[in-house]
Design goal:
Layout (H helix, E strand, L loop, with lengths): L5 H16 L7 H16 L3 E21 L2 E3 L1 E3 L10 E7 L15 E5 L5 H10 L4 E5 L21 E4 L1 H12 L4 E22 L6 E7 L9 H18 L7 E7 L7 H9 L7 E7 L6 E8 L2 E2 L2 H13 L5 E4 L6 H6 L4 E7 L16 H18 L9
Parallel strand pairs: 4-5, 5-6, 6-7, 9-10, 9-11, 11-15, 12-14
Antiparallel strand pairs: 1-2, 1-8, 3-7, 4-8, 8-10, 12-13, 12-15
Helix pairs in contact: 1-5, 1-9, 5-9, 7-9
The protein binds zinc ion.
The site of zinc ion (ZN) has 7 residues, from helix 5.
Length: 394
């Protein structure tokens, strides 16, 4: 067969992982198939692979239902939502973005919150503290699909469903007139299960190493094309372009699992390898690189990321004629696990994004030229980090 271009491979991988294999929650059969694809690819490039298993608490919803005035509305359960005891019926109160200032008298109510400003798990916990019985959450900009939210790990305090913005705004209007009353029913279970990290390496001469992370799992019911097939496919391209290089430092390509449960795979890894991490000179995290333009996250949920490493990436990009912008981000990603373990970490992502953590996060919404650019940049960055003359751990 004729040689495939980088763009062809990125498109093939995105189609297969997000649209055929489909939603890949950690420890699911689909996640296992995705793991096999990544492992086969890395091994075909000559990289040494190992799979690292870890225990975590997963979530599975068997059935759920949101009804208003007797008819069912489209919804899906938030990850880590507790089950309802039978059916829960209560009036709806709109709490905006669910920040501390916005949550007023919610006792005995089902709160309606928008995604943004803080993580949805915080909105639910704060509302629960004030006596709310349940939560409905939606992303305003997600016109057609449903944002797939998550509550506090391993299980949140109140049952919560996600709805489309159409449903959310309709309920908001009705709530304003005191006419919104809904029933929620969720039958879900949390269970102890096993996640699988995949680590593939290009062996260097020294004992030092740099690690690139990209989480493999998606939220249940999200095809997770941008979040995070875009990064997994890009990381495989980066490994391809560096596989035959003679490097000083080792490069590790780390496909993490259960990131969507609160960074479980990367947290397990940094905890289990504390001693080795003194030899880890940098972590470059890719999360949601398939839409918008090239961005570096300067600060995320866990605090500021490494300014030195961000400076290094920016300089490499400048040398390639790639413009990098920076922004803060309310959520976290696997870079946080490395950063809190003392390793300089950065997060490359695309922004703005059009289909984030959504049922509509599909392969047709990815910008493959952007991903090819991310792959070129990522390869140059990792090659630089493998060279002790170019990068020293700060
Ligand atoms: Zn992600």
């Amino acid at each position: 067969m004729a040689q495939l271009s980088s763009l062809d491979r990125l498109r093939d991988d995105a189609l297969y992982l997000s649209n055929v294999i489909g939603p890949r929650p950690a420890a699911s059969k689909a996640d296992e198939r995705a793991l096999r694809l990544y492992k086969d690819r890395f091994e075909s490039l000559g990289l040494e692979c190992r799979v690292e298993e870890f225990a975590f608490t997963g979530f599975e919803a068997e059935d759920w239902r949101l009804t208003a005035e007797g008819s069912e509305l489209p919804s899906l359960p938030c990850v880590a939502s507790p089950s309802t005891k039978g059916s829960l019926t209560a009036p709806v109160v709109d709490i905006g973005y669910g920040t501390d200032e916005e949550i007023g008298d919610v006792k005995g109510k089902i709160v309606l919150a928008r995604i943004g400003k803080n993580h949805e798990s915080f909105k639910a916990e704060k509302a629960a503290e004030k006596g709310a019985l349940g939560m409905l959450v939606f992303a305003e900009e997600e016109k057609w699909g449903i944002y797939t939210g998550r509550l506090r790990y391993p299980v949140g305090s109140i049952p919560a469903l996600c709805v489309s913005s159409t449903t959310g705004l309709r309920l908001s209007k009705a709530a304003l007139h005191g006419e919104a009353k809904v029933s929620i029913k969720i039958n879900a279970k949390v269970r102890d299960t096993t996640g699988k990290n995949l680590l593939a390496q290009i062996k260097g001469r020294s004992s030092e190493y740099a690690v690139m992370t990209a989480h493999r799992d998606s939220r249940p019911l999200s095809p997770g094309a941008n979040d995070n097939v875009s990064s997994g496919a890009t990381m495989m391209e980066i490994a391809r372009s560096l596989a035959d290089k003679k490097l000083d430092r080792t490069l590790v390509f780390f496909s993490t699992d259960a990131e969507e449960y609160g960074l479980r795979g990367s947290l397990y890894h940094v905890d289990a390898h504390r001693d080795e991490l003194t030899r880890c000179v940098a972590n470059v995290n890719l999360d949601s690189v398939g839409q918008g333009t090239v961005h570096l996250v300067d600060k995320d949920r866990a605090g500021p990321l490494s300014p030195a490493l961000n400076g290094f990436v920016t300089k490499v990009a400048r040398g390639m004629g790639i413009r990098v912008k920076s922004r803060s981000w309310q959520n976290g990603s696997d870079c946080d696990s490395f950063m809190t373990a003392g390793v300089p970490a950065c997060w490359i992502r695309g922004w703005p994004t059009t289909s984030f953590n959504s049922t509509m996060d599909t392969f047709d919404k990815l910008d493959y030229k952007l991903m090819a650019k991310m792959a070129r940049l990522g390869a140059r960055v990792m090659e630089g980090l493998a060279d002790p003359r170019k990068w020293k751990r700060t």
